[in-house]
């Protein structure tokens, strides 16, 4: 179970890393939208090559002067998508924290059971030795009693 939990934790760590990228992209896009509305006439551009969406050879820029960019910034879908990506990132982060906690608890329980097993073996050996000593002592006592009679 420890190894399986470790593998699942690594998988959730990958999901967390994967969900952090859209949050970063949407945060940059949201910042450009807010700055474009504050500073009128400024032509701010977002180069999609820096995110790996398009290849390096292509030049794809989204600029604030275009009509589609203004519509995108004014839409409710951008804000809703940004908040949903944040919720997904928080959920994946919570899953990673839960997996780390479960891994620590599972490891501690395994160590406790292993130690209890060793202690049980020790107690068994100790009781056998005590029983043997008791048998030897009672045998000698009987021999002494027989010697007096």
Automatic annotation (TrEMBL):
Keyword Membrane: yes
Membrane topology type: Multi-pass membrane protein
Keywords on record: Membrane, Transmembrane, Transmembrane helix
Domain of life of the organism encoding this protein: Eukaryota
The family this protein is said to belong to: Belongs to the myelin proteolipid protein family.
Cell location: Cell projection, Dendritic spine; Membrane
InterPro entries in UniProt: Myelin_PLP, Myelin_PLP_CS
GO aspect biological process, one term: neuron projection development
Keyword Membrane: yes
Name assigned to this protein: Neuronal membrane glycoprotein M6-a
Cellular component annotations (GO), alphabetically ordered: axonal growth cone; dendritic spine; filopodium; neuronal cell body; plasma membrane
Assembly description: Interacts with OPRM1. Interacts with palmitoyltransferase ZDHHC17/HIP14; the interaction leads to palmitoylation of GPM6A.
Residue stretches spanning the membrane: 6-27, 81-104
Pfam families, per the entry: Myelin_PLP
Signal peptide positions on this chain: none
Designated gene of the protein: Gpm6a
SMART domains in UniProt: PLP (SM00002)
